[in-house]
Amino acid sequence: MTATRIDGKAFAATVRGKVAKGVAALNTAHGITPGLAVVLVGEDPASQVYVRNKGLQTVEAGMASFEHKLDAETPEADLLALVAKLNADPAVHGILVQLPLPKHIDEAKVLSAIDPAKDVDGFHVLNVGLLGTGQKAMVPCTPLGCLMMLRDHLGDLSGLNAVVVGRSNIVGKPMAQLLLGDSCTVTIAHSRTKELAEVCRRADILVAAVGRPEMIPGDWIKPGATVIDVGINRIPAPEKGEGKTRLVGDVAYDSAVQVAGAITPVPGGVGPMTIACLLANTLTACCRANGLPEPEGLTA
Ligand code: NDP
């Protein structure tokens, strides 16, 4: 059996299309344009690429994009003052502070300064608590994208055994909460988990969010399982030439594809969904702020 390849790139384009439609409808009916503010502190090259892509896709979806680039030495107080200004700005419906922040800035303090209603990354403790108690929250983008792909591929998830490998606040834990919300039987595995291979083999849905290149081989996967590979790892690729690299996931794709029922590739799987879900969250935040119905199929 060869697994179905879940095309995250194509699915993300569909999600962005739905967002653009929602934005256009909002604009026509109510004269409202959703706005996303992205704050970047410092010159981390990877973060600069993310921020540029976020800005471009925001504008493509018909939303307003506000980029704030601060230098690496910006005092914490100045960043907090900017967040306060964005919190108060009615044209801004979503605020994202690009992580990681420079060492002298307390990340937790900055994240909790963001108005929870504008917290499109879903990292504010209030949103974490709302998600954990099954209430309407802003949901972190990467796990939201994984959930959308799972629902699209499998339909009803209830009763399925889901194993999430990784327990970070940005991926593993919210992913587990979302799967629980869809009535899966959820196991969270991590670096101290015993018999990890056995645990993985019980999964109808296996989500890998570890950050270790190809650590999950095909023989850890239950035949027919749906595998979502969140990992993004850069490894040497001497076959492409000296000093060249390539991206791989946390799952060994070539062996996993022989066993799984469906699998997301890396690149082109979960990655493109993250920005699409950021746009979806901004539209959702805008609708909520204006007391309007939320867009269908774009929330948890
Ligand atoms: P973290 O480093 O924060 O968390 C990694 C988790 O993996 C931890 O819970 C850790 O366990 C667990 N872990 C580490 N080693 C093992 C092991 N040998 N066996 C089992 N579990 C292990 O990473 P993130 O959650 O932030 O990211 C995970 C991956 O996803 C990375 O590759 C990252 O680049 C990628 N990513 C991709 C995104 C996308 O848009 N596609 C977005 C965000 C992340 P413990 O808690 O015990 O230490």
From TrEMBL:
Keywords: Amino-acid biosynthesis, Histidine biosynthesis, Hydrolase, Methionine biosynthesis, Multifunctional enzyme, NADP, One-carbon metabolism, Oxidoreductase, Purine biosynthesis. Its EC number is 1.5.1.5, 3.5.4.9. Residues 6-121 form the Tetrahydrofolate dehydrogenase/cyclohydrolase catalytic domain. It catalyses: (6R)-5,10-methenyltetrahydrofolate + H2O = (6R)-10-formyltetrahydrofolate + H(+); (6R)-5,10-methylene-5,6,7,8-tetrahydrofolate + NADP(+) = (6R)-5,10-methenyltetrahydrofolate + NADPH. Residues 140-288 form the Tetrahydrofolate dehydrogenase/cyclohydrolase NAD(P)-binding domain. GO terms for biological process: L-histidine biosynthetic process; methionine biosynthetic process; purine nucleotide biosynthetic process; tetrahydrofolate interconversion. Pfam families: THF_DHG_CYH, THF_DHG_CYH_C. NADP(+) binds at G166, R167, S168, I232. One of its GO terms (cellular component) is cytosol. The keyword NADP applies. One of its GO terms (molecular function) is methenyltetrahydrofolate cyclohydrolase activity. InterPro entries: Aminoacid_DH-like_N_sf, NAD(P)-bd_dom_sf, THF_DH/CycHdrlase, THF_DH/CycHdrlase_cat_dom, THF_DH/CycHdrlase_CS, THF_DH/CycHdrlase_NAD-bd_dom. Pathway: One-carbon metabolism; tetrahydrofolate interconversion. Catalyzes the oxidation of 5,10-methylenetetrahydrofolate to 5,10-methenyltetrahydrofolate and then the hydrolysis of 5,10-methenyltetrahydrofolate to 10-formyltetrahydrofolate. Belongs to the tetrahydrofolate dehydrogenase/cyclohydrolase family. Homodimer. This is Bifunctional protein FolD. It comes from Pseudooceanicola spongiae. The gene is folD.
